Amino acid sequence: MIRFEHVTKRYPQRGNALRNLSFELAAGEMAFLTGHSGAGKSTLLRLIGLIERPSRGQVVVNGRNLGRLPARKIPLHRREVGMIFQDHRLLPDRTVFDNVALPLVAASYGHKELQRRVRAALDQVNLLGKERTLPITLSSGEQQRVGIARAVVARPPLVLADEPTGNLDPELSREIMGLFERLHRVGVTLLIASHDQALISDLPYRTLTLAGGALIKDTGTR
Predict the structure, then answer these.
(1) Which residues share a beta bridge with 56?
(2) Most buried one in 96, 135, 170, 181, CB count within 10 A?
(3) Would you say residue 221 has pLDDT above 60?
(4) DSSP element (H, E) containing 160
(5) For residue 112, is it within any domain?
(6) Cβ partners under 8 Å of residue 146, min gap 6
(7) How far apart are CA 161 and CA 67, in angstroms?
(8) Is residue 99, in this structure, part of any structural domain at all?
(9) Looking at the 3D structure of the chain, how many domains does it have?
């Protein structure tokens, strides 16, 4: 599903954010990406989501070499990758339903199928009944669940999460991880960036640790 081959990402003002990074993540695998702030976790996820491209090396996702992918095929790639952010990135003037529906609107889904999928996604995250609510009225944990519903509503085979529990208390963090595990059980590939070592150590999944943009530890499948 994901393959990095000697990947370096260099920024003109900041130098190398990633350095000669190589690893593979199999289809259907769930893994954590950890490391201190500035270690390169977000940059790695941005390369997979094709928000940025590598300076050197190859990033291959689902058989596609992203460094060579033509611009016309970028929307297709992004529809196959669900992205979840720490700060939710919800539209404050749109309802929960409208926020979750955004990927389907962009992909020109029909009204009936859009309605069905949004309700199914909200049911997955236990937010049915909140469709017409504005995000600002929700708790932080509920907002994060809206972000998860939006990421999975189009049923992408790959989901990336960048510090999804960073602003949540331990109980809510475990709840969010439970949602990810449910996605994993139905075959979704997940790569989750997190600095919460206590939470990660309690879960039986592979952990990739970055430091200074380099991969310094890979636990493999436990």
Answers:
(1) 8
(2) 96
(3) no
(4) strand 158-162
(5) yes
(6) 88, 90, 96, 99, 100, 125, 127, 135, 138
(7) 22
(8) yes
(9) 1
pLDDT at 222 over 50: no
On average, the pLDDT of the chain sits at 93
Question: Are 13 and 40 within 8 A, CB to CB?
Answer: no
Query: What's the rounded mean pLDDT across residues 17-41?
Result: 95
Q: Which domain holds residue 101?
A: 81-155
64-65 vs 81-85, strand pairing mode: unpaired
C-alpha neighbours within 13 Å on the C-beta side of residue 188: 24
Centroid of chain to Cα 174: 17
In a domain, 1, yes or no: no
Helices in 49-201 by DSSP H: which ranges?
74-79, 96-106, 111-124, 140-152, 170-185, 197-201
**Does residue 132 surpass a pLDDT of 90?**
yes
Q: Is the dihedral of CA 125, 129, 133, 136 positive or negative?
A: negative
Q: What is the DSSP string of 23-80?
A: EEE-TT-EEEEE-STTSSHHHHHHHHTTSS--SEEEEEETTEEGGG--GGGHHHHHHT
The rounded distance, in Å, linking the Cα atoms of 108 and 102 is 10
60 contacts: CB under 8 Å, gap ≥ 6 = 2, 3, 4, 5, 66
